[in-house]
Amino acid sequence: MSHHPLASAPSLFDRGILARATVDAFVKLDPRRLVRNPVIFVTEVVALVVTLVFVKDVATSTGTPVFDGQIAAWLWFTVLFANFAEAFAEGRGKAQADALRKTRSDTVAKRLLFTDPDEHAHSGVSSLDLELDDLVLVEAGDVIPADGEVVRGVASVNESAITGESAPVIRESGGDRSAVTGGTTVLSDWVVVRITAAPGSTFIDKMIALVEGAERQKTPNELALSILLSGLTLIFLITVVTLWGIAGYSGTTITVTVLIALLVTLIPTTIGGLLSAIGIAGMDRLIRFNVIATSGRAVEAAGDVDTLLLDKTGTITFGNRMATEFLPVPGISVEGLAEAALVASHADETPEGRSIVALARGLHGVAEPAGVETAVFVPFTAQTRLSGADFAGGSIRKGAIDAVMRHLGTRLDQTPAAFRDAVDRIARTGGTPLAVCENGRLIGAIHLKDVVKPDIKERFAELRAMGIRTVMVTGDNPVTAAAIASEAGVDDFIAEATPQDKLAYIRSEQAHGRLIAMCGDGTNDAPALAQADVGVAMQSGTQAAREAGNMVDLDSNPTKLIEVVAIGKQLLMTRGSLTTFSIANDVAKYFAIIPALFVATYPQLNTLNVMGLASPESAILSAVIFNALIIIALIPLALKGIAYRPIGAAALLRRNLLVYGVGGLVLPFVGIKAIDLLVAALHLA
Amino acid sequence: MTVFGWLQILFILALVLASVVPLGRHMARVFAGERTFLSPVTGPIERGLLAAAGRSSLGPQTWLGYTLAMLVFNAFGFAFLYAILRLQAVLPGNPRGLDGVDPLLAFNTAMSFVANTNWQAYGGETTMSHLSQMAGLTVQNFLSAATGMALAAVMIRGFANSGGDRVGNFWVDVTRVTLHVLLPASIVLALVFVALGIPQTLVASVDATTLEGAKQTIALGPVASQEAIKLLGTNGGGFFNANAAHPFENPTAITNALEIWALLAVSFALTHTFGRMVGDIRQGWAILAVMAIILGGCLVVAYSAEAGGNPLLTALGVDPSLGNLEGKEVRFGTSASALYAVATTATSTGSVDSMHESFMPLGGFMPLLLIKLGEIVPGGVGSGLFGILVIAILTVFIAGLMVGRTPEYLGKKIEAREMKLAMLAQLILPATILGFTAVAALLPSALASLANAGPHGLTELLYAYASATGNNGSAFAGLTANTPWFNTTLGIAMFLGRFGYIVPVMAIAGSLAAKTRGSASAGTFPTHGPLFVGLVTAVILILGGLQFFPAFALGPIVEHLLIPTGQTF
Amino acid sequence: MIEHLRPALVLLGSLTVLTGVAYPLAITGVAQALLPGAANGSLVEVDGKVVGSALIGQSFTAAKWFHGRPSATSAPDPNDATKTIDAPYNAANSSGSNLGPLSAKLIDRVKADAEMLKAEAGAATVPADAVTTSASGLDPHVSPAYARLQVKRIAAARHVTPDVVEALIAARVAGRDLGFLGEPRVNVLDLNLALARLDPS
Prior knowledge:
The complex is a heterotrimer.
Chain A: H1 15-27, H2 31-34, H3 38-60, H4 65-101, E1 108-112, E2 122-126, E3 135-139, E4 148-158, H5 160-163, E5 169-172, E6 179-180, E7 185-195, H6 203-212, H7 220-249, H8 256-266, H9 269-288, E8 291-293, H10 296-304, E9 307-311, E10 317-328, H11 334-345, H12 351-362, E11 376-378, E12 386-391, E13 394-400, H13 401-408, H14 417-428, E14 432-438, E15 441-452, H15 456-465, E16 469-473, H16 478-488, E17 492-494, H17 499-511, E18 516-520, H18 526-531, E19 534-538, H19 543-548, E20 551-553, H20 561-598, H21 616-640, H22 649-681
Parallel strand pairs in A: 9-16, 9-18, 16-17, 18-19, 19-20
Antiparallel strand pairs in A: 1-2, 1-3, 3-7, 4-5, 4-6, 4-7, 8-20, 10-15, 11-12, 12-13, 13-14, 14-15
Chain B: H1 3-32, H2 39-53, E1 61-62, H3 63-87, H4 103-114, H5 124-127, H6 130-160, E2 166-168, H7 170-195, E3 205-209, E4 215-219, H8 223-232, H9 253-277, H10 281-307, H11 311-314, E5 318-319, H12 333-346, H13 361-372, H14 383-402, E6 408-409, E7 412-413, H15 416-442, H16 444-447, H17 455-469, H18 484-513, H19 530-562
Antiparallel strand pairs in B: 1-2, 3-4, 6-7
Chain C: H1 2-34, H2 36-39, E1 43-46, E2 49-53, E3 74-77, E4 80-86, H3 104-121, E5 126-127, H4 128-131, E6 141-142, H5 144-149, H6 151-158, H7 162-172, E7 186-187, H8 188-198
Antiparallel strand pairs in C: 1-2, 3-4, 6-7
Helix pairs in contact in C: 6-7, 7-8
């Protein structure tokens, strides 16, 4: 990967973003926008009230203008800090969107005049005027004008605008590599593309909208949390409003400013102010990971996944089988078989062929016999299903057991027992046996093996610790599948899987209340991708697959599913932990404000002033200042997300409770005391 | 505090614990519609009653149908009780010839008994005829308890069922709970009570000539039968004004121990019923542990506050070794009184064997706190269980997010709808308690009812509205509650605290029932371990504490801090 | 709604009969048959006349009797029905004082009572139950300490030696129920009946 326009996202404190977010923080004061966030909206309303109180103080020269003015200022800061957090999170997305937008310039498209894709007569039209199902010709050097499907031709395409990957990819009609994306460039050859997305709703447009957060709606979980926060706000509103009457009983009059200060410190402004920033940042983390989610809902669902459906090939094993063993028939040495296999595969450029050469050379130290250059390579054909080489001294063939048997005109049960045992053992352990014959005589078998990726077993163990089951999907027979499954450490497998099998498996898991994630790229994966709770489509896949999934992986790397899950969990955890922190903070704020409120009536209540705050005014002011500053202090954490570790739910909860629960209980005691010392030293109250 | 005091407390709590499994298992059978060991006797009655109710109305109901049935049943119960109270003067069973109860008091009392509160703005022996006590109040002692338990069954089914919108049948549940649990247990307990000295007669009073030659009129009546159900159903309405402090309601330390057992038994056992029905007994024990921890903590504070005596009296030459005995009976002492006070307010019983008003500030604070925490540790029969499950849902929501998953409890996902309903239910408590208290605190006519000045007077108000809203029924009894203002507002508070809370909670149960029940994995955090127990405990204390801390500071807390100053009011 | 009317009325009616009529009457029947003493209020008769209940305290004011605890019960004022007057040990209207721990009324009352008792008994301190009202106002018991505090006064009033009175108390102190439930106590009516028997005059 050479460069990544998305991954090279702006650093946390990019100057441009900071400046834009600062301006946006003020724009967001508009109550019509703020009402979507009840906690901060309430804060804005009461900030306004205290401001009016301050104005009245000044105008009538009564009351405590210095105190009221400071409280009003800090309440406005509280709102602005919350707005800033959101604007800052959005700003990072906007910067990325701008980069994407540059690729979406207006281009001239060669629209075919006729509906026959083989008739290439065309006229130039603006890409913005293209309609669905128009056919366009794209030739070397042209930018593909809009998303579409290749219906004719084959071309190499540079998709770095989307993926950041500069190596060209092949796009051709039919099959799973027919989708092309607007804004990408054809490097060689030509294709005829049928337009599948109207201008303005192309893949790039969607990406821009997503990273900008323009279509951001509250996700189910965020909604539930907002309800909790609104409920708490209401409860504290009741507590504070009724306190006026309850305090009246004791002959204590509490000023509006002080009641409001109490209210704002009690309602969960910390999490309320950071909630949307956390959500935006979660999407943002995915994007920097080169995965685009079509909705925040999908990111949340990723955190909830119970079962991962993983394709064997490319995810669990390397894409290709490799030779791991030579098993000669009696009378032939291993070296002899290795040499024959080497000759047969000398010119075989398939991965299997190369792995046989590598094994023969590497493990058995066999060198090419002289004259091998003159041998004539016999390539694999669908008819013979054999490949090999003819040379001066004879011929060597290798191929599937049944193909070689047919070539030799014999049957498996007529071969030597040692050979049969070897073939049997290879099949049983999940490998593929190849037979080798020289000059019409069977000389042995080659063990071709699916090689499981080296660290995959640990990854699966990690997932298991997270409570996630892994299910391997493969077209292999059950015996082979079982062997690989056990080697890779997956929890279950679906052998000889058809797309229908996948779909049925997903449905049955969902019926038991489990959430499923899978990735896929082919058109026949589309139903399963749509059915899965998290369907990650490969960017290299078909248009149908990309439409069906709710995430697109720009790197087309199926292993990423695991990281996607971790990012989803991190998003939820950040919300939960900051909520806990926010609520735990209230305890200290009570100990600051309650004695300050009533100490004039009941001096004994100063016992509750455990922090030894200087004066009632400084206590209240310090609590309000702490409440505002903590929002700013937590922005980096909200954007980065709190660390996720696959250590199991109970351990995770214990850890987060300790850090954010107990921490949230203790920290404000220290913070408010420190601010109070400063406030007193500066004679602010 | 004494060794005997603690021994007594531990003994009674051990009795409660011992009955959890057998009683819980029995109730699970009752809820499941299975045969019980009582079926040979109660079966025919059960079949007869249900047949008379009409076969067509006995099918499974949706949460809404169930809730409507419950509301209709309770509305009729209210109307019937109100009518009896108003008309008692012309109805039979009125040996003392008492007048009809006046309208506002009758409203307050009827609401009080239908809502399982049993707040008594009246003195039993001076206001209620035998017919009112038996066919009016005793009946609602059964039916309001049976209603609460039936609703708990719905909540449990909400978790236990997987998909489907049916949550059971109200008529079947109420009938079975009454016949298989409340009535048989009351019969046994009432007879034991008589054997231990509690009267049971239709005679209204006996005149005695005392040794000093004075005439003493001793009020009597069918006390034992009402005492049994008042405790088993966490009702709490006393036959006499002094409630279970009256020697006829509670003659010895043994009856006292039995009474405490009876008022705790069903609520604690329901946790086991819950565990059994959701298929994981540990879940029930976890909930029980939360209840026990909070109850235990409050008990330690209350007992130590009372056992230390009143320093203001000690300064006058009163020996503090017996503790604070103002408003307590000698036969119980501070240990049994503190336990009764904590148990009766931890459940929504509200029966008292000592006067909470005369407790030390911290001693009286604990009952008030327990009521304000929502009557959930363990709370009223049924209502306590569904109440604490709502808190568990809130806990799971926050904790679930912290482990990075959409929160789920017992395999049921907790989503926006459940949160909305849970918060709605949680709002009832502070809105009603603090709202009414704040208004009353500024209302001269309400303040005229206070018996004590200073912070204690504020606590009287707080306690009254907390008790009514929490459907407890105990009081800082100096408050003159039989006034138009209090009869009306406390009646409304009882209504909101009971039915305003129940409706959203039943909606939660219905919503949960319809969800597919998922299975637990290493990614879902376990809700049966100490971590969860600690977390639910913390949520209860923090949620309740944060709402009420300012009011507490101005009531019991400042009163406690004032003791060393010697200031009196 | 309508479909709920029949079951609601039928079940309310039948359960009222079952729990509100049949249940209390059945318990009354069984109790009266098997345990008439307890069921009728544990009444104490002397010479065929009811002198009180073993469970209910009564007011003793004369020096020759053991006094119970202060009682906060009241009765309607015979002159003005809207008011009440103090009526200690009114067994038709049980009630506590409901005075808070910082109540000036409580402190004043205890101060007066404690000083009187201390002077009377010549003691430095008084037991808590001697100066505090009970919850019911009908507490039949006092602590053994309070009973003993009264020995001097009673012995003087009755012209007997204190040992005699002490012995009466010692014979009637009830320990904790089952050895650990409740508190040690003495029944005042029981003590006074013994005093009455001691000196028939």
